[in-house]
Amino acid sequence: MSDNNSNPNSRRDFLKIGSLIGIGAVAAGAAGYAGFAAQDGKEGHAGEAETALSDSEKKIKVLTEDGQLAEIKASELSPVQKDEYTSALQEQGREGIPGKHWVMVIDLARCRNVRACMASCQNAHHLREEQHHINVLRMQDAEHTEPYFMPKPCFHCDNPPCTKVCPVDATFKRQDGIVLIDNERCIGCRFCIAACPYSARVFNWFEPKNEEEDQDLLYNVELNVPQKKGTISKCLFSADRLREGKLPYCVSACPNGVYYFGDLNEDAVTNGTSGETTRFSELIRKNAGYTLLPELGTKPNVYYLPPKNRMFPFEFNGKTTLEDEHHG
Amino acid sequence: MSESLSKEQAKKLVDKYAEDAIRPMKNHKGFLPWMGFLGLVMVVFGYAYYIQLTEGLGVTAMRDYVSWGLYISNFVFFVAVSLVGMVVSAVLGLAGQKWVKPITRVSEIIALGFVMVAGLVIITDMGRPDRFLNLFMYGRLQSPIVWDVTVITTYVAISTLLFILPLIPDLAFIKKKMKDMPVWQYQLYNILSLGWIGTPEQYKILHKSIRMLSIIIIPVAMAIHTVTSWLFASTLRIGWDTTIFGPYFVAGAFVAGTAAVIIVMYILRSNYKLQDYFTDYHFDMMGKLLVLVSLLYAYFNINEFLVPAYKMKTGEAVHLHTLFQGVYAGLFWVVQIIGMGLPIFFMIFKHWRKPNNLTFIAVIVLIGAFLKRYIIVVPTLLHPHLPIQNVPEEFHHYFPTWIEMAVTAGAFAMSLTIITILLKIFPVIPMWELAEEKGITEEFEKYD
Ligand code: SF4
Ligand code: SF4
Question: Which of A185, A190, A227, A302 to mutate to test the interface with B (most CBs of B within 10 A)?
Fold first, then answer.
């Protein structure tokens, strides 16, 4: 490359990712990933300042491929081709967010089956009502033990049986621990459903819910939207939100403080309701945290705090089946 | 031996071989209606599959829990049946069992017919068949599916060779003998017979190659079904997570395949008057073989069900309960008792190894083998480690829809079409091998 045209090229690479989506949101999430206390559900507003830009000499904040925040002249901003953009998203999605190891802690003592998590998740990922990325189960361990509610996302196992069996590397584990699905590559063999011992995966048996509305959306591998017929979907730890420095959809939706989410490397997790950040190790140690079915060797990244000293009495309407007729 | 046959007798014998081998290849009454029937089934298949393609896999009864159903059990069954080519032609052949000679070609044809369609059957199960090529573009060695694709392709290749090589002398012979065949057929024989003129050296090379292929195909055939069993055994599911699945499946495949050969032998024998090749003795021996492999299979079944039933681990207990006395009990006991136990018992008696009776038993065994695959696939998926909740009622059970059944029927029709066509184009009687056994190779080659 000669010096002359190295500039536009490098800029293009530089902008390859993030620039377009990121702009507004990035600024909001600019506090980085260290703690999530900053947002408290008011995300996205900082973006408005940017969209009001008219002066071409104004600088604009963009997120580079490696997650760095940078500034660039608004006049130099050039859109990337759709295809190129999708594949750039794909690439970024496969890579993950360097230096992170996401974990979730679910406090069973606080769960009273409100299902705000389920609703916000289905909403975000354009899921049908019977498709659950996160599912609140009614559990009872033995005949004479007390029942309790247990939200169950994908556990983003460190030894994931699901990714091992995928014949085309459509489901994969990234460096930050998240297990994702590339709906543009999945062949729909459903081997991963068979392999996941936690029934965390769902399949698009029919046209996805928003098939028509979503037609023109760019496919985002970190959101699994638009959903694709004949392919798999499952909990993504809201990888798209993490990239913006926000907490996952379910975590911020819970009114009862059930969820903690954070980075194992920093030993810090933030409660989605109170916004408080605590030491992960301490939380687990003090409350006898555990993982589900550890004997299977899957090494989950979702931890449970046992349902003791319950905040609410166990109330249950006795229904564990969706009543609505299934629509074809 | 050759001394015992005079020139004249030898010539007569070769005459007879030729006539018997060519007879099934000639057009006859039943052929067109039969092909018409198969074609019709395939048209229905096409329609059903078209619906599935356009509307999605949701037109099947499969849902998020029972996410594999009839299609996968079809696949296992097809692979199982195709294993038989190996048992009969390779294992018994290498073991010096001369009686299997006339049966080898039939079993190779069955093997080819089923293994070729097995690959298609797996495509019918895919949510995105349009992305089939991803398997080759992004194939990952860690996945048992990729192993399966690899070994099955290898098996198809070696089986084809093992089918074609022993045909060479016969095709060269028929080329001379059958005067009224169409040009394409002549050309085909001409190409496939590779300039065979029947010299002793050629015979030597042929024997060597067949022997080598017979040895190679044994591990490959074991591999196709072992790897297929690993599609299940490599998961952490209750009922699949066991170590004996490999040999358990292979033993089951021997049973299914042997039964299939008996049935085809019977059809050939009664349709084309081939009693002299598929004799009562052959049925008797195949019956004994079926008893042997069924006993082996029964042994694995006892291990597979009795040991967990003794321990009754939490999850296993639920699973076994469903099989022994729950929703699947009827099917389970029918398969185990009528499909396996009783046939073993009856076949011990010589009377039940007579052609008619044995074929009757073989049909039952084959149906049992098919249902058995279904029982291996479906009930396990209904008992995941965590409860099935907050999904519609239909997610809690599985019964195939008409689309799945039509697609299944179509797959069988395809296999049968391949088998029928192969039987029409190629002589099912291995003439040169029989001639060789009688010590009249020379007459066979000089024949005109
Ligand atoms: S919970 Fe299931 S889908 Fe999620 S990583 Fe583990 S095995 Fe895979
Ligand atoms: S269904 Fe898709 S993601 Fe799952 S194993 Fe098959 S190709 Fe991979």
Answer: A190
pLDDT in tens, A166-183: 999 999 999 999 999 999
Q: How close does chain A come to B324, measured CA to CA in Å? A: 23
Instruction: Count CB-CB contacts under 10 A for residue B432.
Output: 25
Give dist(CA B227, CA B155) in Å, integer.
12
Instruction: Round to whole Å and give the CA distance between A208 and A196.
Output: 22
> Residues with beta carbon inside 6 Å of ligand 1?
A 154-157, 160-162, 179, 196, 198, 200-201, 234, 298
The ipTM estimated for the assembled molecules is 0.91
Q: What percentage of residues in chain B have a pLDDT greater than 90?
A: 65
Would you give the end-to-end CA distance of chain B in angstroms? Answer: 23
Written as one string, the DSSP assignment of B346-362 is HHTSGGGGSHHHHHHHH
The verdict on pTM exceeding 0.95 is: no
Range B337-362 burial, b when 16+ CB lie within 10 A, else e: eebbbebbebbeeeebbebebbbbbb
CA distance B20 to B12: 12
Q: Taking a C-beta distance cutoff of 8 angstroms, is the pair A201, A207 a contact?
A: no
In chain A the beta strands, taken as DSSP E runs, fall at 59-63, 69-73, 102-107, 135-139, 148-152, 171-173, 179-181, 201-203, 232-234, 259-263, 268-271, 277-279, 302-305, 321-322
CB contact, 8 Å: B404 with chain A?
no
> What is the tens place of the pLDDT at every residue in B373-431?
999 999 999 999 999 999 999 999 999 999 999 999 999 999 999 999 999 889 888 88
* Contacting residues of B for A325, CB less than 8 Å apart: 392
> For domain A97-305, is the CATH number 3.30.70.20?
yes
| Domains present along chain B, CATH in parentheses | 20-446 (1.20.1630.10)
Mean pLDDT to the nearest integer, B100-117: 90
Q: Does B61 contact A at CB distance below 8 Å? A: no
pLDDT digits (tens, 9 = 90+) for B168-190: 888 888 887 777 778 888 888 88
